[in-house]
Structure formats: structure tokens, C-alpha cells
Amino acid sequence: MLASLDRVTKRYPRADGLRDFTVGFPAGEVVGVLGLNGSGKSTLLKLLAGLLFPTSGTVTAFGGPPRLNRAKLIYLGENDSLWTWMSPKDAEAFMRGLYDDFDVARYRGLLDSLSVPQRKTKAMSKGERGRLRLAMALARDAKLYLLDEPLAGIDLLSREKILQSIVREWHKDETILLSTHEVAEAEGLFDRVLYLRDGRLALDVGAEDLRNQGRSVVQAFREVLG
Amino acid sequence: MKGFKTLFWLELRRSGVWALALIGSLAFWAWGLYQARGVEGGDPAEVHAILLAMAAAIGAIILALMVGRLRGETRGGQYQLLLLTPPSGAAHIAARFTFALATGTAYYIILGGLAWWSLRMMGTSVDAGSAAQLVLAIPLYGTAIAIAPLVAWTLLLMVFISAYRISGTGWIPGVVMVLGTPFALRWLFEGIGRVAYSLPAWPLLGRLTSASTFLPAAGDGSPPKAVVDNVIQLSQEPVWIMLALTIVFLVVASRVWREVEA
Predict the structure, then answer these.
(1) Contact (CB<8Å) B169/A97
(2) Complex ipTM value
């Protein structure tokens, strides 16, 4: 198992992020993490990234605490977390200096395919910044990708480019967890789908199983969470 | 230390404007000193001393603000991004500390140069050794006993507050540490005052010669002069105490960085 949560509860001062949550992620699958706002999607991904510590239970990534293995995983947060002065060239220097697995040629190829302009992020649109962040993330050769709402607030064409890049860059030994509200657009990507409701795992199902039942990911979303 | 070079570069990009503004502000103080050289109804030397002291104090405050600014750092997500990078907390803290210390050192060395210039304007001649000490040794001494621990303390404060931000209670350690700082300083100064000063002091400013109106004219008719030897003696003990404290602050800040939740 590449990563797992074992009976994890994450409690915030005013709410529970996750409650008694158990799930495992083997290598080589694209997992959709779906749910309404406040269902615990971001908490799940942050716990796996080691950005949050569980209130109780155990989170494991690569056989140990995620924080100790952060060089092997990629977390793309929902925050627009780039400095305003940063250009794609600066981002390359930043990533190359800090991550051994950063592939410069792959990064430059991603910049091209995602049509990221060569200017500072403060002069970029939200979609352009989102594509730059994705290029930075996907240019690493990690095994676990935690992508939290990479499509949020981004125009249709940019969303399509991002999804195409995720498909193109994915390798069979890598696991991607993708949280999104754009369920219809992303559903073709998923091997497996987690439906979260109020911090609990409402349904954990293979996308193929859903299709065999004649249901789409979107339909199941409405049935389980509606 | 892996990643240090990149993190230092990042700090330069992140805070370079602050550093340049800080050092550039010395032009303002130089202008003030120049204007005060012939001040009427007051002692120019006294005005110069006040201006230089103000420049030193304000420089320290701006430096602390540069290091400790949190806004746009954690809310924008950059801190979160940095927490996910493989370099250790020590590398992150060391990069920030080194950049701030380099900026502070440059600032105070230039300020030392202004002090030397001020003496020249006051008609005090300084031998070469003393001039070098004024421009280098005293600023470095001040950096060691005041700026280094101040920067390290600010970094610790910043990281400690960050550790509580996720739960929305960052203001509690913030208030505790800010309110506690004056008490900690008082305790520190009292402690330093009680230290047995047994190490030999460093004599500085070997010879200052200044024009004097209080001494009788020399027999050859040349202007009267006051010659003062060994004007300043700097104790060693505070340097070692403050450097030890600086290291302790940095080690704790590095450890806390590892524990910070974004």
C-alpha cells in the first residue's frame, strides 16, 4: 500500500474534518475524491501530505509518517500558493534547487503544452497560474500525487488542458488523488472514486464497477451525496 | 545543507526590496547628519549622536519586521508550499537568518561609516586603525550582541505563531511572546549585568584627536587638541552569551518548523 489512513479522526476547533476514516491507496490508480464543500476532501489530502496531523488514528505514506517522506509525494493545494514575483523561469530554479526528482525537460514541455506564458504570476490569470502550478507539480517524478481542486475557478479550456496533462503524465506505478467539483469533466480519469460526506467515507467504489452497473460517477454522486 | 542556496535565493527575491529599502534609508540619515553639522543653538555632536542612535534603532526594527512578516506568507499558501519541500527546517531557518543577518551587517557597517564621517565633520581626526574599528568592529560587535539574537528571536516567534495558525489560535502565542519579550529582555540584561567579567575587554578606538576649546594653545601656536586613548573597551562576555542564545533560538525555531501545520 502506497498510503493509508487507519481510523483517522481530524478535529478542528469548530468542526470535524474527518471522522473514523479508514482507506488505503495502492500504487497505480487515479482516485477521485468527491464530496460537497466541507466534506473533508482537503483534510484527507493534507493529512496524506503531512500538512496536518491527525487528532487520532494513523496516517502512513511510503511506510512512514508522510512528513518524513515528503520528497516522494506531491501536494498541489487549493491555495494559489505562488509568489507574485515568480515567473515560470523562477519556478524552475525554485523546483530544481529543492527537489532532486524535478525534470527540467518535462517541465518545459508541460509549460508548452499547458500554454503557460513567460511572465510573472501577478500578471497571469488564475487559469494561467493554475496551469503553472500543475506544470511544477507534474514535472516531478514522484509516486503519489495529491491534487486538491486543481480545476477550481479555472476556465473550461484550461481545465481541459490540465486534465489532458494529468492523463498524459500519469505512469502506471503512480497514484493520483484528485479532488474536484468538476465531476462530469474529470470522471473519465478515475479508476476509483471516494465519496465523502461530513468527514466520513460514504462510498468507496471502482469507476469500472459503476459503469458495469450502468451508472456514471456523476449519477452516483447525486445518489450518494444528494 | 541541502537546498540552502535555493532557499537563500528565495529569501533574496522575497525580501530583497525590504533589504534595499533599509540600506537605502541610510541616505536619509546621511542627509540628516550633513544638515546637522552646523546646527544653531545646539551641540552638533549631540545631534549627530542622536541621529545615529535613531538610525541604529529604526534599522533593527525594520529588520525585525522584514524577518517576521507573516501576512502573505501563510495565508497565501507559500509557507505551505515550503513545508512540503525536502530541505530540513534548519535549512529554511538558516537561509532566512543568514539573509537577514547579511542585510543587517551591511546596514550597520555603512552606519559605522556614517559615524566616522560624522566625527570628521565634527573636526575629530581618527587614526586608520580606529577608523577601521569604527566602521567594522563596532558594527560587528553590535550585530553580534543585538541584531543576531533579535533576528533569531523574531524567526522563532514567527514559526511558533505559525504552528498555531491552523487552529485559529495563532494570536495566543503571538500575544504571549510579544508581551513576554520585554520581561525576557529585562531578565537578560540583569543576567548579563551579573556576569563576572573576567575575560579581557577589546580596546577600540585607539586614538582620537579632536580640536578643543578647553585646552590652552600649544607653545608653537597650533590649535589646541584633546587626545583620548582607548575611548571604548568592549566586553567579550555579552558577545558569547548572545551568540549562544542566538544558536538556541535558531535550533528551537528549526525544530518547531518541522512541527508546523500549514
Answers:
(1) no
(2) 0.84
